[in-house]
Design brief:
Elements (H helix, E strand, L loop, with lengths): L2 H8 L5 H22 L30 H5 L5 E2 L2 E2 L7
Antiparallel strand pairs: 1-2
């Protein structure tokens, strides 16, 4: 792509030395990816993490229920069977 197109897309003005430096950096980046693409990974398993860990999930089991009235008895303020808190947004 022409560098002028990049300038119009990014709304940046670049001097000639800056254009040359960015172009050289982009070329190195593209060459790095080309080198990676040349590696044969057909027999390699997909790896999502290098750590040997597993997610630990607990069973979704019902626990002892506490009556609403008992919980609300500790509330400094309540309204219509719910905890009442100060307004945070105007």
């Amino acid at each position: 792509m022409d560098i002028d197109i990049y300038e119009s897309m990014t709304k940046m003005s670049l001097s000639e030395p800056e254009r040359s430096e960015i172009s050289a950096q982009a070329d190195r980046l593209v060459n790095s990816f080309a080198a990676l693409e040349s590696i044969n990974t057909n027999d390699v398993d997909v790896l999502f993490t290098v750590l040997d860990i597993k997610n630990v999930f607990r069973d979704d089991a019902a626990i002892k229920e506490i009556p609403k009235e008992t919980l609300l008895s500790n509330a400094p303020e309540q309204y219509d069977g719910y905890f009442q808190a100060p307004k945070t947004l105007e």
